[in-house]
Amino acid sequence: MSYRVIVIASVLLVLMGFQLAPASENLTMEQVRRAAEEGNVKSQYNLGIMYSKGQDVAQDLELANRWFRKAAEQGHAKAQYKLGLNYIEGRGVMQDGIEAAEWFRRAAEQGLDKAQYNLGILYDRGQGVAQNVPRAARWYRKAADQGFVKAQYNLALVYERGRGTVDQDWGQAVKWYKKAADQGFTKALHNLGGLYAQGKGVAKNEVKAYALFSLAAAQGHSRAEENRKVLEKRMDGEKLNKAKKQARDMQQQ
Known about the structure:
This protein is mostly helical. The protein has helices at residues 29-37, 41-53, 61-73, 77-89, 97-109, 113-125, 133-145, 149-161, 170-182, 186-198, 206-218, 222-234, 237-252.
């Protein structure tokens, strides 16, 4: 029996929450603006956030990007990331993959996991940069090593498929699916279940596969539900009871 495994990489860029840095707490708009004009990098970033949200000021995405750029040019990683995100989305600026890649790279080199992941996406897709799957995998790994779940999942996909000059490596695929699954990432739970069901990169274990499919199905993954039913039909009563118990135990962890 072949178990269908999701192999389409997640390509939606990660949106970063709008959060003001502590430096601007309890400050008025004018105080933030004055500090920004004097070159305070946190205030420049926060002013960009305020214009993005329309918080205490009329929303103005162009002005937001102007202040993000000022902070980004001073090396503020979150401003660099935000500017890159706006360039990729065409938010207050013309869409520009090259600019997006440059600002993601600057933030990624400072260790910002979201930027590392999104730079990996651009290399994976060949957007704003020449397509380079090994380089995408390297940036995914940097974010994955920090626990960024989507990067862990995408890295597992690269190893599962053996894309570009990255060799197929079932063991590495299992490793990174496990890390993402441990964080409850639905697609990783399903795909890891598929590898256990087939014995790829790990000893075949249909009980474990059933439990993983159950967890993914509980989160609304329709294919996981289908695969669980396939396994259920193949199991005798004792094995099915064991699988259901393991699924319950995993849900309570």
